[in-house]
Amino acid sequence: MIVLVALAVVDLMVGVSNDAVNFLNSAVGSKVAARWVILTVASVGIIIGTLTSNGMMEIARQGIFNPGMFTFHDVMIIFLAVMICDVVLLDMFNTFGLPTSTTVSLIFELLGAAVLVALFKIWTEPAAVGDLSLYINSARALTMISAILASIVVAFVCGSVVMFVSRLLFSFRYKRAFRRFGALWCGLSLTAIAYFAIFKGLKDSTIVSREAIGWISDNIRLLSLAFLVVSTIIMGILQFILKVNILKIIILAGTGALALAFAGNDLVNFIGVTMAGIDSYQIASIAGSSTITMEALAEPVRADPLYLLIAGGIMVFALWFSRKARTVTNTEVNLSRQGDGVERFDSTPASRALVRSARILNKQFSAIIPEKVNSFIDSRFKQTNYDRKHKAAFDQIRASVNLTIAALLIAFATSLRLPLSTTYVTFMVAMATSLSDRAWGRESAVYRITGVLTVVSGWFITGIVAFSAGAIIALLLMWGGKIAMAALLLLCVLLLINSAKIHRRREKMMVEEETEHETKKVSVIKDCNDGIHSAFEQISRIYSKTLHGLAIEDRKILKKLYKEATELYQKEKERRLYEMLPTLNKLHEDAVDTGHYFVQVNDYLYEVSKSLMAITKGSYEYIDNNHEGLSQKQLEGLQDIEKAVSEVYANIVEMLRTSDYTNFEQTLAKRDDIFDLFVDNIKLQIKRVKSKESSTRNSMLFLDIVSETKTMMLQARNMMRAQRLFLGNQ
């Protein structure tokens, strides 16, 4: 029981870190208010949601398995396996900033653990019933899964259509049109959000009577119409008389409503299993037997409001202080942002094929639609400086659409008693509105689609991994007992610690990238020169240490250097992709020659980093595969090359540091001497090959290092020549 309670606390922390994206992304992405204001509104929604929670934990108690077929010992194994699996799985998704469904993870973890325990009983207990279908509520589980998958498609289609119509109505210059229709628009949005809050947040509340909820349900159409009229009038007064930005009210209200529904209904995903475990313990304690079957779990039970309030407090704490919550939110915001920037995901064959198909389909539709209609549509989607002053990812019109459509879809499904994932719905609506809003241009579409495919594939992986991990952990607990439990808990702690380290490294890299892309207060020329100087210092250090690590056959050093060289290569690649054009725009309009040299400098530096990565990769893989080290003659040759190259690199670094190129010609002369050294070493290696002194892999590594070093020297010379001309044109 102590373990279950402790895991519930951790699960609340990691669960909120992932699900926070459901209600934060629209407010954060549109910069509707300061972050502390958004978090305060969400916190109030969470607390109200916990207080109005129905406390009914049917999914954990009887939604997936038949408790009457399991003993107290069996269900405790199931619950413990689910909690261990859920904590590790959700934390893994949080670490990589990928939103997933806590509902889906819980369902499949329960299903996997219950199936394994049932099979274990069938195999090991002669008196056990041999029909697995009596243990598992497979029909209900399949209904849940089908509804969740259908909600993904429906959310995407609805989000796309509504956003397209909304942009046609308001355009990006929406202030004038919003003065005409804004009050009605916000009245409709508030009505949808209120409808959502009633059906999703309060429908099974413990503080609202059944009679009141029943009366509201019976008169929902009349109440919705009355609420629409009243809210529209209030919004009109706020807009025209008090001059209030009513879109902010809608976005904050939607944020609070989604947070309320999340806490009121998804709380079961984090503490439902633990609460069911506590109830099971109490049932077994009263009966005085651990072999009693758990039919009593099927009976309706309400959770203690104190437990719910404590859980809400933990969720609010995680919302404010979890750095992983911000990472998950940033992933969705970046995928849906309107502006340019660094794309987190690379392109894939699937994303490229989808973009090509979409372009072909778009051309076919454009050919059918009259030219005047096309021109009108294009004019409505012509972007402006929508919120660049505040660096918003998208405008408030899209944020309000995101919240309204997500709220309506979730409320509608809830009214029909169809289970769905709030994460899947809110994410797909956000992606659909960004696509329909033309945020995915030809420069970014393949990368955004890759991101969406990554997240969606992660959802399917969630189910597979959750089922498999739940089953494996349950099997280990059934076989290993307390020893297995201790070992699994230790493994869980180690995985959490390791994921925290990985997240800190990823976060540090993201912060560095963001810092590099911010406009600096120093001159553009000095900024560029400092960046190249820093990069070449790193290149010189990695190159020398790589040859030293190869000489002493130190695998760990080579692995670390290979990682550094790869990161440097990626950094220079991104510099060419995302920083070159913004920097050129900062130069004077007539600085064409300067821009030309700047482009050359970046190209040559990229080629140097590419060759360096090839050297470190070849050296690391050679030693990692336990091949025989280089001979003494080969090492002496590489030492001579390294010494000469390091001397030239030191001169280059000094010239970059001081911007003094008076010794440039002398450095070029030294470089010519090194080229003679390259030729001599290649000839000596050919002689060693002919005399059978070197193996094939040994020879290839040596020749590759010499060849890539030669390329590095050539590109470094070209880079320095272009850099000197670049500075000389200022």
The biggest sheet, with number of strands, parallel, antiparallel or mixed sense and barrel status, is: none
In terms of structural class, how would the helical and strand content be classed? mainly alpha
Instruction: List unreliable stretches of 5+ residues.
Output: 517-523
Question: How many structural domains does the protein architecture include?
Answer: 2
Query: Which percent range fits the helix content?
Result: over 70%
Beta-strand percentage range: under 5%
Total number of helices:
24
Average pLDDT confidence is 81
Instruction: Give helix and strand order, one letter per element, not per position.
Output: HHHHHHHHHHHHHHHHHHHHHHHH
Q: How far apart lie the N and C ends?
A: 72 Å
Overview of this protein structure:
This protein has helices spanning 2-29, 35-51, 58-63, 72-95, 102-124, 138-170, 174-201, 210-218, 220-240, 246-266, 268-287, 305-321, 323-336, 349-368, 371-380, 396-415, 422-436, 445-517, 524-552, 555-586, 592-624, 632-658, 664-690, 696-728. With 730 residues, it is mainly alpha-helical.
Q: Which helices and strands appear, and what pairs or packs with what?
A:
Elements (H helix, E strand, L loop, with lengths): L1 H28 L5 H17 L6 H6 L8 H24 L6 H23 L13 H33 L3 H28 L8 H9 L1 H21 L5 H21 L1 H20 L17 H17 L1 H14 L12 H20 L2 H10 L15 H20 L6 H15 L8 H73 L6 H29 L2 H32 L5 H33 L7 H27 L5 H27 L5 H33 L2
